[in-house]
């Protein structure tokens, strides 16, 4: 009753590896699109290319999340509960700010803002773990 | 909610890791329950009570 046979759990290292692969694909696509003179069609294809490794990452993330024990699931939920509204506040603030102060697209374009999301998620993760350790 | 998890575990000479493996959770979860920072689900509470051959009422007490 207590011990139920389970599928071999996926390792966090695999998820990390695929996550790194996804970001590497994104960076390569970004550099190619930004630094070279690719035809418009190729550029659009490259803009969508990181979605493929992202889907692989999402699949592994979903399985790792489902396999996590209840405390880890709670911590993940609390991290997201912090990161999501924090990102909203950041975007709202930048939105208001750009009405009065011109924000350079070299610093605050969409390709820069996404990086705040994992940063806020990891901040939320650290805060949540502090509560339970 | 207080609990007697640490006492019962020590009586059996089990490490947190050992108990965690027996009930199928992480060591961090056992630690968080023992230090009363986390209240386990009913399912985990039943597993813990069963592993120590006791009842949930004897393992956990309302309070604090």
Number of DSSP strands of chain A? Answer: 0
Strand content of chain B: 5-15%
Characterize the overall form of chain A.
Answer: flat
Discrete helix count of chain B: 5
Number of domains of chain A: 2
- End-to-end distance of chain B, in Å? 6 Å
* Spans where pLDDT lies below 50 across 5 or more residues of chain A: none
* Oligomer kind: heterodimer
Cα shape of chain B: globular
Beta-strand portion of chain A reads under 5%
How many H/I helical runs of chain A?
A: 7
- Give the biggest beta sheet of chain A: none
Order of helices and strands of chain B: EHHHHHE
Specify which chain pair forms the largest interface: A-B, 13 and 17 residues
Contiguous low-pLDDT stretches of chain B (5 residues minimum) are none
Short description:
The complex is a heterodimer of chains A (about 130) and B (about 60). Chain A is mainly α and about 130 residues long. Chain A contains seven helices and no strands.
Task: Describe how the helices and strands are arranged.
The complex is a heterodimer of chains A (133) and B (64).
Chain A: H1 12-35, H2 40-48, H3 51-67, H4 70-100, H5 105-108, H6 110-113, H7 116-132
Helix pairs in contact in A: 1-3, 4-7
Chain B: E1 2-3, H1 5-12, H2 16-23, H3 27-34, H4 42-51, H5 56-59, E2 60-61
Antiparallel strand pairs in B: 1-2
Helix pairs in contact in B: 2-3
């Amino acid at each position: 009753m207590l011990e139920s046979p389970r599928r071999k759990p996926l390792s966090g290292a695999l998820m990390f590896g695929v996550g790194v692969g996804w970001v590497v694909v994104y960076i390569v696509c970004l550099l190619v699109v930004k630094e070279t003179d690719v035809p418009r069609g190729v550029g659009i294809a490259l803009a969508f290319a990181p979605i493929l490794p992202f889907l692989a990452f999402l699949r592994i993330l979903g399985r790792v999340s489902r396999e996590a024990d209840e405390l880890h699931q709670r911590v993940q939920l609390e991290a997201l509960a912090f990161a999501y509204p924090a990102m909203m506040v950041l975007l709202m603030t930048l939105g208001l700010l750009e009405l009065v102060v011109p924000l350079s697209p070299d610093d605050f374009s969409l390709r820069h803002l996404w990086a705040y999301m994992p940063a806020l998620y990891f901040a939320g993760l650290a805060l949540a773990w502090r509560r339970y350790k | 909610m207080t609990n007697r998890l640490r006492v019962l575990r020590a009586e059996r000479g089990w490490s947190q890791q050992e108990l965690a493996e027996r009930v199928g959770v992480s060591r961090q979860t056992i630690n968080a329950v023992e230090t009363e920072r986390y209240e386990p689900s009913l399912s985990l509470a039943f597993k813990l009570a069963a592993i120590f051959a006791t009842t949930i009422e004897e393992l956990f007490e309302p309070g604090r």
